[in-house]
Design a protein that fits this description.
Blueprint (H helix, E strand, L loop, with lengths): L10 E3 L10 H17 L1 E5 L5 H15 L3 H4 L12 E2 L7 E7 L4 H11 L5 H28 L6 H6 L1 E11 L8 E6 L5 E6 L5 E4 L5 E3 L6 E6 L1 H6 L9 E4 L6 E11 L2 E2 L17 E2 H10 L10 H6 L3
Parallel strand pairs: 1-2
Antiparallel strand pairs: 2-10, 3-4, 4-5, 5-12, 6-11, 7-10, 7-12, 8-9, 8-11, 13-14
């Protein structure tokens, strides 16, 4: 089905002053977060910790990063899938990306910065570290509210303790040969959740349950929160991971985006609060790292549309 804006995504406003745990506004917002993820697998979040000036600075810093020689960017090596440098490979000729694992650890951000700029780049390092901590704070708030909405708040502390982060800098260029306009083919993320923040250039499209596509309108004051396959498994299929793609067809030749991906260590399984007669257990306990290995090993052409989670850890 062709691309079209069929409806507005649910928008969650976390900027209200009286949004305090236990308040009626808090409880209703928890419910909206759950409903948005259950209905769309994603939602837009308004969050006031990212001033416009900071937004502009970090995207300017990203351009400086991508302007580095390819041999420098290729030093960003990580054995985990899609954690290190990806550069204009044949399957994704319009896409380029770099990653910092554990970006809320200042030492890890400094290590990445010094790899890219051996003479140092304090400005980039400070911006990347500050952004990662803003995104992590948002993630922790959202997860607390999601867990509470399912009555599973007693599991939240262990979730926080086992969560790790990956910050990716993403770039998409318009094809000069007009051979393709696919910046990133349709897929679901293998994260627990993904928090995206974009520049002003459109291109991200999200598929609804009905198979229609929503073209996402980016805003400097908002984030897009996307449920990954692991969130789907944790919620016992109440939340469906969001199938999405990037189409590069704007007049502007370049699009930049920040992707903040969350992963879990240890065994992952649906809490008892999301399992009942109406929602029988769908997944066996599994490790996130094993899912990533399975995904890479299952390198078949149709894997994007397969239910990888069911193949990997289905209970039946």
């Amino acid at each position: 089905m062709g691309s079209q804006t069929v409806s507005k995504l649910p928008a969650i406003d976390l900027t209200k002053q009286n949004l305090n745990p236990g308040s009626s506004l808090w409880v209703s917002t928890c419910s909206k977060i759950r409903q948005g993820l259950e209905e769309y697998g994603c939602m837009e979040v308004l969050y006031n910790k990212l001033p416009l000036e900071f937004h502009n600075k970090i995207f300017d810093a990203m351009k400086e990063l991508f302007d580095l020689p390819k041999e420098t960017k290729m030093k960003n090596i990580n054995p985990k899938p899609a954690h290190g440098y990806i550069g204009k490979i044949s399957a994704l000729p319009l896409h380029e990306g770099l990653g910092i694992e554990y970006p809320t650890d200042l030492q890890q951000v400094e290590n990445f910065t010094n790899l890219m700029w051996p003479a140092g780049n304090d400005h980039f390092c400070e911006l990347a570290y500050a952004y990662a901590n803003i995104a992590a704070e948002l993630e922790r708030m959202l997860m607390r509210m999601l867990f509470e909405s399912y009555g599973a708040e007693k599991h939240h502390e262990s979730h926080v303790a086992s969560t790790t982060y990956l910050l990716r800098f993403l770039k998409y260029i318009k094809s000069q040969e007009d051979q393709t306009n696919i910046g990133f083919k349709g897929h679901t993320d293998k994260s627990f959740i993904t928090i995206l923040h974009q520049d002003h250039v459109k291109g991200l499209e999200l598929r609804t349950k009905d198979g229609d596509w929503i073209s996402y309108e980016p805003s400097p004051s908002s984030f897009l929160v996307v449920a990954g396959d692991v969130c789907m498994a944790w919620s016992n299929n109440r939340i469906k991971s969001c199938y999405h793609r990037v189409i590069v067809n704007e007049e502007e030749a370049v699009r930049h985006s920040l992707g903040f991906f969350t992963f879990r260590t240890g065994l992952i399984q649906p809490p008892e609060e999301v399992v009942d007669d109406e929602h029988p257990l769908q997944y066996k306990p599994f490790e996130h790292s094993e899912l990533l290995k399975f995904y890479v090993a299952s390198a078949t052409q149709d894997k994007a549309d397969r239910n990888m989670m069911k193949d990997f850890a289905g209970a039946t």
